[in-house]
Structure formats: C-alpha cells, structure tokens
Design a protein that fits this description.
Number of domains: 3
CATH architecture of the largest domain: 3-Layer(bba) Sandwich
CATH superfamily of the largest domain: FAD/NAD(P)-binding domain
CATH class of the largest domain: Alpha Beta
Number of helices: 19
Strand order of the largest sheet: 3-2-1-4-16
Largest sheet: 5 strands, parallel
Helix content: 25-40%
Radius of gyration: 23 Å
Length: 476
C-alpha cells in the first residue's frame, strides 16, 4: 500500500513518543524503561517517512539496513515481512532497536531531522522485532549450500554475533567461543536489564542457533586453546578475533584501591551477568548501595548504566561526576534525560583528585576539584581546566569509575605473530580487517577501541565478507 499522504502532509505529523514507565516507579525496579510503540503509534510514525529516492538513512546505518523498505512494510501492516527485511542485514534487530544510537546514525542522516524531527527508525525497528518474537514466527534467512569451511569466532559480543550470522548464511560452519558462561558479551554483562532485557539477547542467540551457528562457553582463547591451535589442530580455516575492549581504565588518583571503589565493568558484570539486581534470589557479592551515597565518574552510556543501576539498588544520593559540561557528555540524550528523571544528580565540571578512606580502608569521601572549559582538545570537545583552590569533599560510600576501557591482551600475548598497535589493540587492514597473521581477522572494539554496539556489528559484517572471500579464493 502506497503512503496516501503527500509529503507536505507527512511533515505535519509530529514524531511519536515512546511510552515509558513512570520515573518514580522505574527508579526502584529493573524492568524495561521504554514500553514500545503501539500499533497505532507505529503506523503513524511510519507514515512520516518521505520515501527518499536515495535514502541517506541507509548509508547512515553501519550495517546497511534497508530502512525505507522496512518502514514501508510497517505502514502496510506487514510486520513479519518488515522484520525479515531488517534481518537481511541485521541479525540482532530487537537489540539494536533498543541500544543503538540512532540519533547519530540512521536518524541522524534523515532529511526530516533538522526541521521536523527524524523518523523514529529505532522505535520502528524495535516494534517489528518485538512483534516477530511475540508472534512466535521468527523467520530464518536463506542459507547458502555448505562450503565445508570452518570459521572460529573469538568473542560473542556484537561484532562476533554479526559476523557469525553473515558467515553461516554464506554456507560456512561457524563456531563462536565465549570466555564467560553466557553468550552475548557486553550485551549480557554490560547493559542493564532496564535498557536491554536479557531474554531479548537470549532469544536472538537462540535464533542464530537455529541458523546453524555453534556456541561454546567457558572457553578462554589464549588459555584453554590458542589461535594457532584453532588453525592447526582444530581444523579451522579462518579465525575472527572479536574480543572487545573490556579492560577497565582508572583515574590514577590516590585512594582508588579503597574498598567501595569499583570499575564500571566489575560493577555492571556483578549486577547484570551475576544477577545482583535480583538480590533475594542470588547471593552475588556486591557492596550495599541501600541508603548510601553513590557516585559514578564519567559521562558516557556506561556511566549512565552504572549510576541508574545503583539508584535501583537503593542509593540515597546518586551522582554523576563529569569533568566537562552536559553539552560534552558522550552518553545518548535519552539516557541523560532518563537519568535526570530518575533523580540522578549531575555534578558537572567536577573531577576527582583523591578518594578518602576511613581507618578500616573503606571509602568515605571523594575530594573533587571544580573545572572550567578551555580550548578544544583532540576530541573536538572543550578541554577541562582545573580551577585552583576549588577543591572540596563529597561524602561517598561507593564510587564507580567509568572513564573508558582498553584492550585485553590475552589473545595477542599468546599469538606472537599478531601485530598490535598502541594500547595493545590488534592491527587490522581498515578495508578487509585482515591481521598480520594469515587466516586471522579482527573486528570491533579490539581493533578500534571502545565504540557502539552497531559500529561493532558493522565491523563484524565487513569481516564476514572478507573472510568469505578468503575462504573461497585462498588469496591473502
């Protein structure tokens, strides 16, 4: 069914808002914040699409989802067909519909964006993926005839899963190795339940198993088995390293070794993967946040995930400490908005210079220094400059450091002919993602440093294409 509205009529339709849990209620539970579009809201939002002849939203998507086509199918009420259209390019639509920063990518490229508000592509993607799952009719893409080639993928995060989906569709035998006990990487251990329910991730993984992807957990590549052993003894024709960048960074200030100071990685892993958020059912060791003063240092999505989790665990005062202003925060605007609605206090233009402990070695306060913004630095953001004599103490019981991550060296250290660059990241060709070692490719955060879920998935797709070509031609 063609859109009956003329372009001039479509632009008059305001962007539809996603229903959400009440802020006061959701700040005390781990249930999903956003509730999804209704059928009526989805059709209204789809009707806003101008159906551009050369849709920029497609080029703005790192995995190349055919946005114009799937949105037209939503408008026509063909929701399963819309889901199938997305799955041609994206094996995790229910995930990316929730956590992808669409405002910087597909929606950021939408021609309606500046004047009328971009089409809610992410909302519609989530809508059709949820409809498909709830219908029990999740479709499988067509699979090419078996090639007899085996591919090992190291890491089950977004890059690894995306590559696995593409490679199995091309007829290869794919096995994904995961060091932890559950598949999903950062989708499982890093992103909280209230933003990405774990049954969503598990459902997508089950669908990949139906496609033929094999998964092995509790396998630490570099210890349990090496890359060389995968290529030689285990008979794999190619290996993709997609281990992410999960090694936490710290501030390097006095007192960071006090009890009560966490890395965001450890805190979120305990909350999510180890289910500390279900305190009555699981005995996961985690510092008690109930009626405590909790602060997260950092301004990205991980920082927001950590402090919003602490709030739900009962924090009395929940702070974000960030050394720049709100305008420079890298977190998604929606995450900042939700955090403020939930009572998170933003201590902007502040920077910890020391953590202070009691006589038993437990955190009691942070010494903060006020900052002002100077000229732009290499990131394009204005550089924070300390204000002399502005230090003060903030009483704290728990501090969580969320200032970035770096590469885990395990695979690199046990694969001597694998070249790395500064920071221990794997050196890979920017076009093919081939490494210095024949048959070994690398994709995602282990190459680029920490990035978004969808950028890692785009890299996984790029690697899958190059791996397929290598397996078919033997050319390196």
């Amino acid at each position: 069914m063609a859109n009956p509205l003329k372009p001039a009529e479509r632009v008059k339709i305001p962007r539809q808002h996603m229903p959400a849990q009440d802020a006061a209620a959701r700040s005390r539970n781990f249930q999903e914040v956003n509730l999804g579009l209704t059928f009526e809201l989805a059709k209204t939002e789809a009707a806003r699409c101008l159906e551009c002849a050369s849709p920029k939203c497609v080029t703005g998507c790192p995995v190349g989802v055919k946005v114009k086509e799937f949105v037209a199918l939503v408008l026509d009420g063909q929701y399963l067909q819309a889901a199938a259209k997305i799955r041609e390019d994206n094996v995790l639509p229910a995930v990316t519909g929730r956590v992808c920063p669409q405002e910087e990518q597909c929606e950021g490229a939408c021609v309606l964006g500046k004047k009328f508000g971009a089409v809610g592509i992410g909302y519609l993607e989530r809508f059709v993926a949820d409809y498909e799952r709830q219908s029990g009719q999740i479709g499988l893409p067509a699979l090419a005839p078996k090639t007899g080639k085996k591919v090992a993928i190291v890491g089950s995060g977004p890059a690894g899963l995306s590559a696995a989906g593409d490679l199995v569709q091309r007829g290869h035998d794919v096995t994904v190795f995961e060091a932890l006990h559950e598949i999903g990487g950062v989708l499982i251990y890093g992103i909280p339940e209230f933003r990405l329910p774990k049954h969503i991730v598990r459902g997508e993984v089950e669908n990949m198993k139906r496609m033929g992807v094999k998964f092995e957990t509790d396998v630490v590549i570099g210890q349990t088995v090496t890359v060389d052993e995968l290529l030689n003894e285990e008979g794999f024709s190619a290996v993709l390293v997609a281990t992410g960048a999960g090694l936490p960074q710290f501030l390097g200030v006095p007192g960071e070794n006090l009890c009560g100071v966490y890395s965001a990685n450890e805190f979120l892993t305990r909350v999510n993967l180890m289910k500390a958020y279900r305190a009555g059912e699981f005995d996961t060791p985690i510092v008690d946040c109930r009626d405590k003063n909790v602060a997260v240092v950092g301004g990205g999505n991980t920082a927001m995930d950590a402090i919003r989790s602490a709030r739900r665990l009962g924090a009395k005062n929940a702070y974000i400490i960030y050394r720049r202003s709100e305008a420079e925060m890298p977190a998604r605007l929606e995450e900042i908005k939700h955090a403020k609605e939930e009572g998170i206090q933003l201590l902007l233009l502040n920077n910890p210079v020391e953590f202070l402990g009691d006589d038993k070695g437990w955190l009691r306060a942070a010494r903060l220094q006020k900052m002002e913004l100077g000229p732009a630095d290499d990131s394009g953001r204005r550089r924070p400059v300390p204000i002399k004599g502005s230090e003060y103490e903030l009483p704290l019981d728990v501090a969580i450091i969320a200032v970035g991550t770096s590469s885990n060296p395990l695979v690199q250290s046990t694969t001597p002919d694998l070249r790395t660059r500064k920071g221990g990241y794997i050196e890979a060709d920017p076009v093919t993602l081939k490494t210095s070692k024949r048959g070994v490719f690398a994709a995602g955060d282990i190459v680029t440093g920490a990035a978004t879920v969808i950028l890692a998935m785009g890299a996984g797709r790029t690697a899958a294409k190059a791996i397929d070509e290598y397996l078919r031609t033997g050319a390196w």
